[in-house]
UniProtKB/TrEMBL annotation:
The gene is mutM. Its cofactor is Zn(2+). Residues 240-274 form the FPG-type domain. The lineage of its organism: Bacteria, Candidatus Aerophobota. Involved in base excision repair of DNA damaged by oxidation or by mutagenic agents. Acts as DNA glycosylase that recognizes and removes damaged bases. Has a preference for oxidized purines, such as 7,8-dihydro-8-oxoguanine (8-oxoG). Has AP (apurinic/apyrimidinic) lyase activity and introduces nicks in the DNA strand. Cleaves the DNA backbone by beta-delta elimination to generate a single-strand break at the site of the removed base with both 3'- and 5'-phosphates. This is Formamidopyrimidine-DNA glycosylase. It comes from the Bacteria. InterPro entries: FPG_cat, FPG_Glyclase, FPG_N, H2TH_FPG, Ribosomal_uS13-like_H2TH, Znf_DNA_glyclase/AP_lyase, Znf_FPG/IleRS. Keywords: DNA damage, DNA repair, DNA-binding, Glycosidase, Hydrolase, Lyase, Metal-binding, Multifunctional enzyme, Zinc, Zinc-finger. GO terms for molecular function: 8-oxo-7,8-dihydroguanine DNA N-glycosylase activity; class I DNA-(apurinic or apyrimidinic site) endonuclease activity; damaged DNA binding; zinc ion binding. Monomer. Belongs to the FPG family.
Length: 274
């Protein structure tokens, strides 16, 4: 699933390519991808509007329209947003936005867990429940070490599952939670409330650094993720633990192992991560 760095890469691409462009026509190929309102109304509301600022909140994209309305988009597990200068058929496309400059923006989604919401005002938090309950942005200014410490206080369960919980922190998923824990020497199943101060500090800095680094490399294409131009991200070769079971730890040469945490495949070094 695209996580913060991948969605941020797409957001930056949209800012460059479609900001200021008018949506001439909307073609819906699969109504299930339109969450609200009903698809005929969705089309009617969006056609003729100009795309303005593009924001990201967690793994969601929020495309502002010149009318003050917004279009919210989530890529789900396999969603792709592809920009092309000509009208071409994109595989598994579900919703296509034809722009006035003859370019098109296609929302393609093989497995169909992604979706689009038209929000008639700026109250997208009310319209999309996941946004209302979302935790802080890890790269936001208000996400300080103190804030992170406060959030962790009294939290039960496993640290890896907590990092992936969107109501705890926004935008982190299976890849970057594992990378940050590896870099911090913390075992994925540790109890959040029992982490030592110095471990919390390490985790905080590694989390931010790994997300920033991945953004600078335009994300990881471990599954189906590609950017707006259909090009894969460059961060995958730099992943330090994710999907490296059987390979040697880059730090201590111990063999990396795999286990399930909260039903998700999780990679860790049994020597470095305690
Ligand atoms: Zn190791």
């Amino acid at each position: 699933m695209p996580e913060l760095p991948e969605v941020e890469t797409i957001r930056r691409g949209l800012e460059q390519k479609v900001r200021g462009e008018k949506i001439k026509r909307v073609i819906i190929r699969n109504e299930r991808s339109v969450k609200t309102p009903p698809s005929s109304e969705f089309v009617q509301k969006i056609q003729g509007k100009v795309l303005c600022q593009i924001h990201r909140r967690g793994k969601y994209l929020i495309l502002g329209l010149d009318s003050g309305e917004s279009l919210v988009l989530h890529l789900g597990m396999t969603g792709r947003l592809i920009y092309s200068k000509t009208r071409e058929e994109i595989g598994y496309s579900r919703v296509v936005f034809l722009l006035e400059n003859n370019a098109q923006l296609s929302f393609a989604d093989v497995r169909g867990f992604g979706g689009l919401w038209f929000v008639p005002d700026e109250k997208f938090e009310e319209a999309v429940p996941a946004l209302a309950n979302m935790g802080p942005e890890p790269l936001g200014r208000s996400f300080t070490l103190e804030k992170f410490k406060q959030l962790l206080k009294g939290k039960k369960g496993k640290i890896k599952s907590l990092l992936m919980d969107q109501t705890f922190i926004a935008g982190i998923g299976n890849i970057y939670a594992q990378e940050a824990l590896f870099l911090s020497g913390i075992h994925p199943t540790r109890s959040p409330s029992l982490l030592l101060d110095q471990e919390i500090e390490r985790l905080y800095h590694n989390l931010l650094n790994v997300l920033k680094e991945a953004v600078s490399y335009r994300g990881s294409s471990v599954n189906t993720y590609v950017d707006l131009d259909g090009i894969e991200g460059n961060y995958e070769p730099r992943l330090r633990v994710y999907r490296r079971a059987g390979s040697n730890c880059l730090r201590c040469r111990q063999v990396i192992e795999r286990m399930e945490v909260g039903g998700r495949g999780t990679y860790f070094c049994p020597r470095c991560q305690k």
